[in-house]
Amino acid sequence: MFANTRRQSTRPSLHLFPQPSPSRHMSEMPVPLADELFNLVFLELDIVSLVACKRVCKRFLHLIESTERVQYHFELQAACMKDGPSRSGTDLPELDTATRFGMLKVYRRAWEALSWTGPFTIPLSPLPPHAEKYVLVGDVLCAAGSKYLQCTRLPSPIRGIEERQWRIDHPCEDKPRSSEYGLAIDPAQDLLALAEDQGRGASFKVHLLTLSAGVPHPTSAPSGTISYTYDYGYSYIFRWRFDVQIHGSYLGLLADEHYGGVNNHLIIWDWVSGQVICEIRDDDNGFNTVQSFTFLPKDLVLLGLRLDSGLEDSPCRVKSLVHDLAAARSLGGQTITQVDDIPYLCVFEFPSYTGQFQGMDIQSTSSLGQSPRASTWYCSPFIPDTESQQVSLIQVFVEGEPQESLFLPFSIISHHISSYRTEGRQGIRIPWDAWGPAASLKLRHDGPFAMWRSEAMCCPHLVILFDDTQRGPPHPRPQHLLLKDFNTYAARRNRANHTDIPSQWHSFSEQTVLINVEGRWATLLLPQPMIDYMDGEILLGQDSIVFAVGNPRIGSPLTFMRMTLVDPENVEEN
């Protein structure tokens, strides 16, 4: 009954009702355990075990459904959430379990009812010069320019969070445009990472700063920077584009040469110690490249690879593979100089493409590190549990081919590699026919809208911005948001109608799209004022949808608009 616990490996087995031996006197019979002890056990169980416990006896059922702490623990997992840190020492009041539980119920009710207000302009000012780069993680939105970052904590009426802004001067001030450096944040770890080119060959430096003040991070590598240098043997100045990602103690940097003249470099560090965990490049074939990457739970990274002979009319091979960072760390770090030889736990194969390859993108939910205490920028009463329902979105762009958009749930990856990793084996290959068709999402969705503009993820949700390409001036093109919820528990509740709110959600099985994970979807017609923002990019927070619009390079200033999730029983303009 208690086998499926989260901490099974570190917890001794607990015999709740030991049978007396024949030699014992009746006075030595065990005394029934107190309810509080049972509750402590329930708080260690996952949702599947808790459901099983409800069926054991009436006492267990009563304890689970009447104890507020246990109910909160249960509903957190049902919402793909985990409890947030204490707010002690912040500008926000401390929250007890009852208050957090109440907020969680309102949060779930608002998502169920799709209760959004807005759009409202985000007063993110003054914007830094040449502000072209921005990022939203958790509740923190940062806009980066050539001299500083302007940051804001987005408000949340449901979670009791007020808006707050601050500015960070950064060390990349000699870069005329923010597009010339890479940016990543983790509010939970108070971490801001800025990657810049050092000017010769492949020479990069990553500044590890506090998100709160922009000073060297106190727990980062010595001097608050980590560096990488690869000498090509000549002094040509390359133009690099950077993709920086943070996952716990891992920091990844993918450097892509702007004109494609040399191979990409992927470096993954332990940003606390400064150790290089993994370095990947291809010294033999500049056409073989790591196109994209995303961190996964359990010390894994998912890589998107392009394998190309470079010969005219030869097919381009694409694949995604799962690399084991724990194994790389145990070896003291890995340097891989041939992309085709990357060791893997499993590889997901794609069909061959005959058209000109234009790119591959992999993205997953931005994860927050662990922190026992809240801060001004990390103060949510509950936060997404990315390990519970993480889904990666893989997109392949080939000239003359329909765009492939694929959903790869971590549960599928975990299923394929669990036995191999336990046995110390690796190398399973999964052919396209065994996973691709079932994971594909058609670009044309049922309804009047057709063009996929932009997408964003925040566990367990994906939002896609569409508009109707069949209409145009003088008629405004209607815009829609397609929301996908990968929370299997919410999908099952929706299917069983366990809600008093008329549902606007539909099961994945009701779509014409094949998808290999249980979930649900819904659509939102955007308000009329949003039609001017159809060419913008969309960002997704825990309960905010943000539209970033404008292009400073052509004289159009950057503007941010937000829609906010609110209690459907008390809808007010926020």
Automatic annotation (TrEMBL):
Biased composition (Polar residues): 1-12
Recorded superkingdom: Eukaryota
Segments for region (Disordered): 1-25
Entries under Pfam families matching the protein: F-box
Ranges of residues in domain F-box: 33-73
Name of protein: F-box domain-containing protein
